[in-house]
Amino acid sequence: MLTAHADQGATPAQMSEAYRAVPARDAAAYLSEDAFSTKRHLENCIAIYGNGYDDIRASAIEAIASGRAAFWTTSTYSAARTVDLPLALNRGVGIREALEQAFPAWCADRREAAMETIVPLNTKAVNALALAYAQISGSFFEDAELEARRMRDCRRAVA
């Protein structure tokens, strides 16, 4: 959080320093992320969402070991189209392409809702998901909002 603001009487130098601190903090978080911390996120997601699917788990571990973006899902087998999204994503398929494969043109209106089921396990996945939201739905999400999906149950009740 930036603490030096012009409306609070901060000088331009203080504001500049505050803005430089944000990328440095983000870079430190990115560099401190390793396969072990990402695997812990995976195990947390399995516990949170109660869906320890072996195929998705194996594909996530492979993505983690390969240094790629790694994903999990909030879905269960009752949601057949979205439960398999992480399989494609963990194999390196882009989010837009995976959504187009799972939701062809005749059900394209469900793609944005399907994105809500994607849980990013590492920083690369957070960045990819944030970009996909911006490109597909025009929505903007802070990294912390997307990272929260791996820390607490973020499923939304559908009426």
Secondary-structure map:
Layout: H1 12-32, H2 35-49, H3 54-66, E1 71-73, H4 80-83, H5 85-90, H6 95-102, H7 111-115, E2 118-120, H8 123-136, H9 143-147
Antiparallel strand pairs: 1-2
Helix pairs in contact: 2-3
Q: Report the biggest beta sheet as strand number plus sense, adding barrel if it closes.
A: 2 strands, antiparallel
What percentage of the residues does DSSP assign to strands (E)?
under 5%
Number of strands: 2
Instruction: Provide the residue-averaged pLDDT.
Output: 80
Regions with little confidence, pLDDT below 50 for 5+ residues: 1-8
Widest sheet: strand ordering = 1-2
Helix content: 55-70%
Order of helices and strands: HHHEHHHHEHH
Distance between the termini: 35 Å
Work out the count of structural domains: 1
Task: Compute the CA-based radius of gyration.
Answer: 18 Å
Query: Which outline best applies?
Result: globular
Q: How large is the count of helical segments?
A: 9
Structural class, from helix and strand content? mainly alpha
